[in-house]
Amino acid sequence: MIFVKFTCRKLKAISIMELRKINILLTIHFVLLFAGLPLFVEAQKNPLVEAIQRFDEEKYTEAETLLSPLILQSPDNLMINYYYGACRTENGHYGPNEINYLLKGSTGESPLKTDYYLGIQYQAMQQWNNALTHYLKYQKTAAQEEQATLGLSEKIQQCRDQFSPYELETEDIAPVPIAKEEALQAETDTIIYTPNTDSIPTDSFLAEETEIEAPATVPEKKQKQAPINFDVNSEMMYVDTSNFQTKEGLEAYLKWKQLSLQLDSLTRNLDEWRRKYAEANTSSLKNALGQKIVDAEGSLFGLQRDTRESLQTAQRAETDYWNSQPELQRIDFIASLKEHAASYNQPQVEIAEALDTALIISTEILPTIVPAKQQPAGDQQDELVYKIQIGAYSRGLPSYVKKQFDKLSLIRKIDQYTDEKGVVVYTTGNLTNYEDAQKMQTQVRREGVEDAFVVPYFNGKRITLSEAKKLEAEQ
Asked: What's the superkingdom here (predicted)?
């Protein structure tokens, strides 16, 4: 009786709103209690959940197979991007695509090993500073036992020694369009002609063999890492990440580079989706593409803002540092930067090694070989080439043009020369016919240089297009 009275008094004290809250909580409790098993079974059928389980079991090939269709269906899903990039790395695939997957995945609540996998990717691509940055960042958060298991200290030392045990496969690198005449043809170093022994009696002598030395081939030139060309202010441009004087400036610069990659990727996707939207012939396809475009444009503004703020933070941190230093020290550092930048433009000395490339030809075949006629030194063969002019400036490159050229130089070789009026002309490409030149012009314009145009040269001298077409018709 006492218990009933106490309960009644408690119920009177509870408001109607509180009773509703209790009712909702009890309902959720019973739903989870009795529906837990079906939900668990459904989760097991989820391919993403299954892929993550395979990844945790270190079955990376199976996980990648499960994630491949998911990345096509949901290219902007952060979790899928992380695990797909991690699987690709574990399975020995290295390149810009894998880096993009990991960078996109790192923008969300990605697992701890994002920086570890990015370190491996950059080490494989021999970008030592980027690799060290991510390895050291991962080292600060990972447990000692995990670091030892992954051999992190060894990888860090390899980057400092500029050594990579990872091999880049051709299929993992995005193909870069090159001119036809620049394509390299495979050559064999040694060719041996031997007579058919079936047609020679056993007691006969073999034909005398004469050895002719083939020209020594030039060893493959080792590519030097490109300068970063980071404008701190109007009088100072950093060439390498070692030039940074503050930790805040370096971290902001690296974040800016990472965000710039994401921004470029998003911009390219938007351009592609807009092109497909214009060509779509069904309403369902247009609706799907339209939704993608709207979603991407919604995140584009925030990404542009973050990219701009990271750049300004890096420039401000370094400028504040140099403003606090003596003027003489600042002048000396600017001079050292110019010397450092000039070292990138100096041609590397190439030493031709004597290679054993003997060409052995039987004397029976030797008389049929006619020696090539030597061309007189003064009789130079006429050469007509087409180049794509991307700019001409007499007072140096504007900052926005320089950034544009820096991006273009990642996929194309940019040449420059000074004409008779002192104007520096920038070109790319070296094509032998006008049709191919027009195709490259279209491609370069798509890559950002909207005012690119075709310019013909005959024996190194610029000529008009009408003159070039006449010469091309005569050839």
From this structure: Bacteria
